[in-house]
Each structure stands twice: as C-alpha cells, then as structure tokens.
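Inputs:
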Amino acid sequence: MTDKGIIISRLLEGFALNVQLFALTLLFSLPLGLLIAFGTMSRLKPLSWMTAGLVWVIRGTPLMLQVLVIYFAPGLLGWGPLWGSGSGARFTAATAAFVLNYACYFSEIYRGGIQGIPKGQTEAGQVLGMTRSQIFLKVTLLQVIKRILPAMGNEVMTLVKDTSLARIISIKEIIMMAQEYTSKGLIWPLFSTGVFFLVFIGALTLLFGWLEKRLDYFRA
Amino acid sequence: MAILDVEGFSKSFAGIQVLRDISFSLDEGRALAIIGSSGSGKTTLLRCLNFLERPDSGIMRLRGQVLFDAQDASMQSEQEIRKRRLNFGMVFQSFNLFPQYTALENVTLASELLAKERERKLSPASRRAIAERGRELLDRMGLAQKAENYPHQLSGGQQQRVAIARALMLNPTVLCFDEPTSALDPELTGEVLRVIRGLAEQNTTMIIVTHEMAFARDVADRVLFMDEGMIVEEGPPQQVILSPREERTKQFLARFSGDR
C-alpha cells in the first residue's frame, strides 16, 4: 500500500470511532432526552426544578469540559475506576458525556414540540376515553416528530462534528489521527478530514429530507 | 324522566367564580340550547360535564345514578373519570380532528383502542365491524366520499361533520356541542346546523352551546340563558328567545334581533 493509502485507511479508522460515538450518543440520548423533557414539564415542582437545573448546567458549560469532568471526576472523588481502564474506559466516559449533553439539548427541542401541540388535541383524546399514554402515542407523538424534525436535523449534524471533541481525552478519532501527521509536517491529512464529515452529513441531509417528505401527508 | 341532573355546580379559576350554583336537568331525547355572551360560563359548564374541568362543588346524576360528586374523592381518579366521561360526547368549536389520520381513522381510532383493551388484540372481524360503523356514520354526515381524506383536505364544515361522526361513534348518552359553528365561515354553518337538526329529529339527547339564535329556537326543546356564571332564565325557546321575562335576557337578545 502507498503512504497515501495507509494514511487514508488510518483516517478511516479514526472516523469509525467518530461514527461509533455518534451512533451510541443518538441511541441513548434520544430516549433520555424525552425523559428529561417529561421531568421539566412535570407538575412535581422539585422534579421539574431538578431537571431544569441539570439542563442549565449542561447547556451552560462547554461539552469539552464535560467530557473531561466526567472522565476524571470519579477518580478524583475516590470512586475508583468507574469507567474501567484504557482506551475503552475513555470511550465509555466520552459516550456518557455526549449522551448527557445531547439529551439535554434534545429535551428542550422535545419540550418545545410537545408544548406547541394545541391543547385541543389532548382534550379530543380525553373526551374519547383515551388514556394519557394512548393520547401521547397515538395522537401527539407523530405531530411532535413532524414539528421537531428540522431542529433535530440541525442538532444531529452538530453532533457529527462534535464527536471530534473526544480527542481531549486522547480518543483517536479522525482529527487526532490527522494531527499526528501534522506534527510530522504533513498538512493534507488534516485538511482532508473535512471530506469525511461532508460526506457523512450529506447522507444525513438526504435522510432528514426523506423523513420530512414521509410526514408531508398531513399538516400539524 | 330526566336523564341528566346537574345540581349546584360551582367553579372558580384563580379566585374568579365562573359557575355559580348551576342546576338543571335534561330529559332523554331532548335538545337543550345554552345561550349567553362570551364569558358567561356556558363553555365551562359543558367542559365540566365532559370532565375537562372539575367543578369545585356540585353533583351530577345520569339516569338517577351519581356520575360525579365534587365531595367524593374516590371519583376524582384518572381511571374513574375515563370510564364516566364516555357517557358524554363532545364536539369542539375548533373541531380538534387528529391531523395525521384520515376522516375515517379519526372516527374509528377511539373505538379501536377501546376494543383492543377489551380483547387484548383486535380481531380482524371487530376491526371490520368498527370500520363499517365508521363509514356508516360518515355517510350519515354526507361524507361517504371523504372517508380517506385527511383533515387539511377538508373544508371547515366537513371537518366539523367528521368531528360529529367521531363523537357519535362511541354512542354517548348525551352529545355536547361547544359553539359548533363559531369557527366556520358563514357559508359553511348551514351544513353543520343541518346535521345537528337531523340528530335532533332522531331524538338524540343533546346540549348545544350556541350563538345561533334562530337555530336554537328551531331545534332546542329547552333554552337556558346564562350570564355571569348563573342561569338567568330557562324554559322553552318560545319563551326564552321570543318573549324573555328577565331584563338581562332581553338585553342580550336585543343584539341578535335581526336573527330571530
């Protein structure tokens, strides 16, 4: 294999970590965000204050700092190796930080979407004898999804690029990989990482466009 | 014999009393029209009957059985209320159709969910029976051709008729209408009023909150005039609308003089 080929395959190896972090973050933060949104909207004041406080702290501090704190804090507080050890531990800690961070952002998008549904929709469900969960699943949810899709698309695309922040705890994602060459005086690998992101986000753009089209059959 | 008895309903929102000691009864197969200016409490009264609001005090009986008692805490649970509210159907001013479902699906959704709870899994036979009844009701509303249309593809009058079919689907004992034509363009009110008139002719027990005086006069068996949360005057339409006794009723109706 040529030098160029080797470099590109190392970049790909790095990008695989970005994609993994991306997928795991989405997998856990999408449902967690909904729970946080329910917490914030709860009539139980202590609960809603707690989740609102959490959202404030998470949205109010840099994600990079959160990754550092979540990775190092357990050790510093004497809780032992909460995340295990080695590169697997770093990746787990980064995933935890990303999940928490994105769940908080998602929760606010969900909350806006849910509160934007006219009250009459819930009331119509109620007078038809539906339970709260039936109303949420059968009436509200799809309308919420349709409303929040553009905002979610934005957030998901930001997540793709944010995964590079994981290098702060030495996760060998694509930018970190490329920077190893930069320090050897080779700049093109770093610049070419942009192409990986562009292609991935291009695919996501198509996916979200397709989803929006799928929900075009009704107006909410 | 009275099918519905309401006794002493009172309701306050944040210290403002919206309903003051409301009592009335309704006979089976009869239509009751509630008239009054906005803010008189008529919509709140309807919402109390449908358990969308809880009265602070008062008792409601259906066929002599207590359906709601503000003093009885055991009646306040979510589950209890869910069962009891099915005695009432509700047609909203703004239709409130579910936008992601077709006209037919809007009509059948609640029945399917209820059947699913009874049978655990909905059998194809009951699904067919439900769909058939849904189509029948849409047909009665003159909407047989619109069964597969989504709400945004329908006019306001058509949407409101779908909403009426949706409420009828669950066979409510009392069907409530909250200003069913107020959100409609004037040229579309006729088709909705015609449908309600048809229901009255088939002796559907109904409570209609309305600003359509001519309609109330023709369709209702009794009229109830509300002002400031109280029932000011009650009686047959000839009396309340055509020759009211109370000064406040006269003042209110004077605004509709062209309409009588």
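Chain A touches chain B through 23 residues (CB under 8 Å). Flag for discussion at group meeting.
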